[in-house]
Structures are given as structure tokens and as C-alpha cells.
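Give me the fold.
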Amino acid sequence: MEDMRRIEGGGAESERESPGGDGYLREASPSQGLAFSAARKAFSDGRVRFGAGEKRALGPVDEDGRFTNLAPLPSDRCGHTLEIASFEGCTKVVFEARKEFSGPLFKQLDDSLDYLDMFNHIRSEIGRKERT
């Protein structure tokens, strides 16, 4: 979070009010009943701890143990989606295939990598499970 860039002309006040600002992300989330089973599994698969201390250090939990506005992103109730499309030719006019992924962010990542593998006609490896 420390390396986030401020919008020119914005100070601490405008950063706090902005949904994209670091101050906003540190504020308590209105959603306090979040679960992190997909994130916990992803971290566990990578042999990385994801306990209370790590949640505080990474930002989804504040010093008082409340979920921050960052918390819904890695939670099981992530409201963001990921869309992937394949186009015919180089014009980006005709879709060959399109898919939208929803749900927990870590599941979206795994599912999208599986989907991309179907269109990867030249074989390469993407380091997918190593989150260190």
C-alpha cells in the first residue's frame, strides 16, 4: 500500500474520500461478516500463513480487528469480476470466445488461468500456484 501513487493535487483529505485512495482502503468496511476460505486455501497451498497477523499486515484487517474496505477483494464475497475474450484476427471486432469469472478472487485467478490454457496453442507454463 505504501507505494500507491497520489493523484496530482490530492492531499490526505482527497485521498481519504476517494474510493481508490489508500486512506479509503484502510477505513472500516460496512461488510464485517466476511469469510476467506478461498484465500486461506490459496495461501495454504503455497505454504504461506494467513492468520490474524498476516491479515493485519496485508491490510484486510485493521489494528482493532475490523475488516477494512480492502477486505472484500480477497474475501469469498468478492464483488468484482474478471472477463477474458478471444478475438478473430487482430481487429478485435469478432469474438471467438468470451467468459466472465466471478466469486472469490483466488478462484477467479485459477479458473481464468485454466480457461487461458484452452487457447494457448503454443505451450508455455504460467507459475500459477506459487504465491510467495
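Strands lie at 82-88, 94-101.
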